[in-house]
Amino acid sequence: MRVILSILLLLLLILQVQLWSGRGGLPEIWSLREQIREQEAENRRLQARNEALEAEVRNLREGLDAIEERARTELGLVREDEIFFEVIELDRPLRELEQDDNG
User: Which of 2, 66, 81, 85 is the one with CA 20 to 30 A from 98?
Assistant: First the structure.
């Protein structure tokens, strides 16, 4: 009876070592689960980016308004019958700048 009990205890000890430190053990499973969570978050971020890009492509294919808007904002498109005004935002009020120049 003692021999069987000793063998069972030894098997239990081997299984515990395998469970906590061996290949496929709990630490490896926890690490893999964390990697899966990170990959799923990255996939969600990339999916959102892809959807935004698809919407932009669809918009560019369907209408000239989107193309004109991009040309205006990115390339500075101005038609021949339009007048271009550039509004510059100052860090300080104009009066302060004039006073600095005069005095």
Answer: 85
| Measured CA distances, 102 to 91, 92, 96 (Å) | 19, 16, 10
**pTM beyond cutoff 0.70:** no
Q: How far is CA 94 from the centre of its chain?
A: 41
Q: How far is CA 96 from the centre of its chain?
A: 43
Q: Count Cβ atoms within 10 A of the Cβ of residue 53 and give its class: 0-12 exposed, 13-18 middle, 19 or more buried.
A: exposed
Each residue of 78-92: pLDDT tens digit? Answer: 989 998 888 888 877
Strands (E), the chain: none
Residue 27 CB partners (closer than 8 Å, separation 6+)? 20, 21
